[in-house]
Structure formats: C-alpha cells, structure tokens
Amino acid sequence: MSEKSLWLFIFILLYASYCFFWGVRGSRYNSDNPEEYYLANRNISSWVFFFAATAATFAGLTVISQTSLVFHDGFQFVGTAFIAITVPLGSIFFFKRQWMLSRKFGYITPGEMYYEYYKSDTIRVISVLVTFFIAIPLLAVFFGATGYLINTLTDGYVSRELGMWVISTIVLFYVTRGGFKSIVSVGVVQSWLYFLTIIILGLIIYSFVGNFELFGKALSKIASTKISSWGNTNGYGGGDYNGYFALPGVIQWVAGLGKDEATGGPWTAMMIFTFTISFMGIVLSPSFSMWSYSAKNPKVFSYYQIWGSAVVVGLLLFVFTTYQGIGASLLGANADINNNGLAINTLLPEVSKNEHSLIIYHIINLMDNHAIWLTGLLAVGLIAALQSTAAALLMTSGSIVTRDLYKAYVNKNINWQKELAAARIIMLLIFLASLYLATFAKPAMIIFSGIAISIAFQFIIVLLGLVWFPWITRGAAIFGLIIGIIIVILTETIGQQITGNRLPWGRWPLTIYSGVWGLLFNVFVSFSISAFSSLTKIDAYRSHREKFHNFLNEHMGLHPSRTKLKSFAYVIALIWLFFGVGPGQVLGNNFFGDPGAGYDAWVLKIPSIWGYQLIWWFFGIGLIWFLSSKMDLSTLPNKPIQANDLYNKPDDVQGEVNYIDKIGTGYGWILILIGMAIFSIIFYVYFV
Q1: Please, what are the domains in the chain?
Q2: Can you tell me the distance from the alpha carbon of 199 to that of 60, in angstroms, rounded to the nearest whole number?
Q3: What pLDDT does 535 receive?
C-alpha cells in the first residue's frame, strides 16, 4: 500500500467514525414518534440548518462538476454559478409558508400536504414516483463518484465498485439508524469539509500559477487566439470573441445539442438563465421541501439563504472553483494551450475533452510531492461533499415512500415501531437500487440523473397553488405537472432515445434548458385549465383551498411600514433577473474591455465577463437579503400561532409577542458592504 493510500484510509477512518458515532447517538432520540425520526422533532436551529442545508443542497451537485465544466467551457459556464442566488430565491418564496402549514396541520411529508390541500391521491402518488426516480439516479452518481475517487487516488489498489459499496455503507448506517438528527449533525462537519476542500484546491492552483497578474496576462494571451472547446463566437455576443471568454449571444435559434449545435458554445445568456432558474428544482422537489418542516422557526431559513447559499456558496463557485477550472488549463491540462506555448507550467497531465470530469482528481494529486497527507484530507472532503447530498436524498426519499405510499395505501393502521422498521427497509432498497444502477447500468445512471432536477422543477406550479394562488385547481396542477415532465423528457437525451432519434430537435433546443421548456407547457396547461374552471364555475374545492390561504395570509402579512416597498421589490428583482442572470448578462462580454484586446485593455485585469458576473453576484446577495428579511419572506410570523394550533412553542413565534411589533433584522450592514465593494471597483477602474 502506498503512503498516499495510507493517508486516505486514515482520514476515511476518522470520518467514518464520526458518522457511526452520530448514527448510534441519533438512534437514541428517534424511537418515540415519527417527528423525531423524520424531522429531528422540528427543532433544527439556525446555524445547524445553515451548515447542513447548504451542504445538502449544493455540495454533491457541484463539488466535481463545476470545476470540470469551467475547465471545459471556460468563463461562459461560470454564469451557472448564479445558482447560488436562484436556489435560495426559490426557497424564499416557498419555505416559510410550507413551514407554517406543517406546524399547523402536522405534516411530515410534502405528499401529505399536497393530498390535504388538493384532495388528490394522484398528486400524492406522482410526488412519490418523482421522488423515487430522482433519488435513485442521483444517489447512483454520488456513490459512483465516491468509488471512482477511491479507485483513482489509490492508483487502482481499490476498485471503483469495492470503494463505492464500502464507503457508501457509511451513509446507509447513519441515515437509517439516526434519522434526520444524525443527517444534520453529520451535515455540519460535511459542510466544513466541503468549504475547506474547495478553498484549499483553489489556493493550490493559485500557488502554482503564481499570482493574479501572471494569471491575467496568461489568460489575455489565450483570449487573443481561437483556442477553445467551442471555437469563437463568430459575431454572437457582440463580436468575434474566443468562446472561452464570452457568452455566445443572448439566444441562438438552433435545434439543440446532437442536431444543430450553437456557435461558440451552448451557454448563451438564455441558456444560463433557464439553467439557473431550473436549478431551483432542488429545493422545490418533495425531497427538499421536507427540510422546511424541520426548522425551529422560519427565521432559520434566512441564515441558509443569505449566508449559506448567496455568500458562501457564491464565493466558492464564482471565485474558487472558477480559479480551479481556469487555472488547470494554465498548468498543463489543456493540450492546445500547451502546444501553443501558452501554459504557465505543465504540472498537470493533459486531459481530453471527453474526460474533463477527472480534472479535480489531478489537482488533488498535485500535493503528492508536497504534502501527501493533504491528498487524503482533500479526498475525504470530496467524499463528505458527495455524501451530504446523498444522505439527504436517501433519508427524505425513504420517508416519502414510506408515509405517502406504504402507510397511506398499504398499511394505514401501522404502529410507529413497525413504520420505523418499514422506513429503514425502504431506505435499504433505495440504497441497493442506486448501487445496482451505478454498478451495472452506468449509461442509464447518467441519462436519468441529467433530467432529475428539471423534473423536480415542475413542482413549482403545485407549490404556487398550495401557498400563493388558490385559483390553481386540482386538475390544473395534475395535468400541468404531467405535461411538464413529458416535455422535460422530450427535450433531453432520453427523448431522442425513446423516439429513435426521430424528433426534429436535439437536447436543449434554442439554447433553452429542459426545465424551462417543461415549465412553459406546464404553465400554459395549468393556467388554461384553471381559467376554464373559473369561467365555468366548476371548481368544487375552491372554498376548501381558500381556508389554507386565509390562514397563511393571516400569519404572513407584511409590516404596514413596508407595504410601499413591494413595488421596489418587484423592480429590483426584475432588474437583477434581466441584467444579472438573464439576457442582459451578454453586456458583460466587453463591458470591462474587449476579451481579445490584451491585458492592458482589461479594465479589471480579469476577463470582462468574469468581472461582470462578480458584480451581479454582489447585487444578488443584496436581493436575497432584502427579500428574505425586509419583505418578511423568511422571518417569524407576524402574529403567534393560536394556542389551539398544533406544535405551538414559545420559541417558534417569540412567545406571545407579535413579530409585527418587532421589525428589524440586523442585516442592514450587508448592503453597506456591498455598496462599498461596488464603489471600490468603480474607483479602481476609473481613478487608479
């Protein structure tokens, strides 16, 4: 066994010991009732939720893919880092209201809430099926990546399959034994490892590149060439720019990948917009809706939305993973750059375009000759990141299948002890199914995991009806959801395979992501059916649904002093969506200097599009803070839940004191810091 493998096993042993500890300890507190096992007794505090939910939402989905795709596609892909803003934006509009309903009516799973509100078994069953078919392929990807990591870093000493099966068993143990309490407790440490790993990997690249000046000058030389995975933009996006340094226009009227591909790369402004909006599906899915039920109070969500997602994840994605992916090209990983003598160094092995997902493993291996123990630590950091999302999916999907399928339709009168045993068995079956997929059906794993989040995004209409718009009918929600899922499938690779490649379009036609294609049809169908029901007055359950909305409006209202801010909130949200993540971001291609004009022409001394993205990320942080805190979308209810309501606790609503009389959140200085940052950039650009 090599020294590197030895360090890897030492850190894995320490990590596994911590996970097993919480699996055993958590099992002591979850045997009394379902709430303790499924939701940690609805008592997750602010900072625990901040760490655990942040890692569960982002870590597994970004830790490997973000760096590798930045390496492959360049700065045009960096725009997808705006998921750090759009994902919390989705939770802002839905988490607090779902929390209030779960507290009043005692819901444990979203399916119970959907059923009670819409009076529909169909929506409940669809939520189970979607959860099942989302969880298994994603779990397979996370477990498979874990196995591949072990195989690569042990130089083949441990096979992918053996590493995958053994290491993933850690997740199965602490999830099934300790329940949600163990997940969030382990999730705190997993988040620390995730943050630390991404930061250290970025610093490793920085140390080998040299400094920002060398980094910028090296990039400026590449920007003046046509060295790019996608070539030049050929006039799209305001000029004939290297596709590595510019967005290829607002939108391109092409059939899509596999048929007629976009010029200069697929990541047009519209593609980035629709991708980042669709990524909301991770928090809109039934699996992650359950997280909102576990919080001690809705103010908890603001920590996760502002600090976890917008600030920390934004910093990791916009700065550190970007530096990793771009810097790897300067350190020998890009053959074209090497052949043209533009690399700063050749420390990394050349990586082909089809194997770009390996780049993060090669970056870790840079430590072999400098601090070999750090290789083991970084590997465990990647494993922890992958397992944080895997554990959350395994727990919530097993809970949903147990309560919304087995308990609801198979054994309605089951007692808690038998339900607990059934939940653990179902989680075991999901675990085995995902490992089987990762072991014996890798192509299916890739295909199905690619559509998972887009399908989950279709639940946005179901949730809009549930907590915002009572006029969305049961039939509208059902048919809109089904049509949306079908359209997602037809605009992805699986659609071509099902139809024998007979569809006239490819993947992501018109450079619009499949999640938004599904949403467009979902909205049209659901709104049309709702309008028809309203005109014909055949909506028999309207009064039933309005009872839920009356309760929400009674407890959710905006403070009178802030009602005038509503229009302002709409305006700044639309401005940010247009210029930050929407069509307006194409302005960033040359806003701070033409990409190919040379280092001296770069006003910020970094590529113009990157500087533009960073500035709108800062504004995005301000938007999240404003909506969650000042628009009361992630604050305490404006009045206490009444004494006869379920789960009323003093610390849930600040005793009997109305929140409406205690406005102010203490985050105002965030805007001051953002303003100072923007002012500093402007000062640097025009006066230094």
Answers
A1: 3-687 (1.20.1730.10)
A2: 16
A3: 82
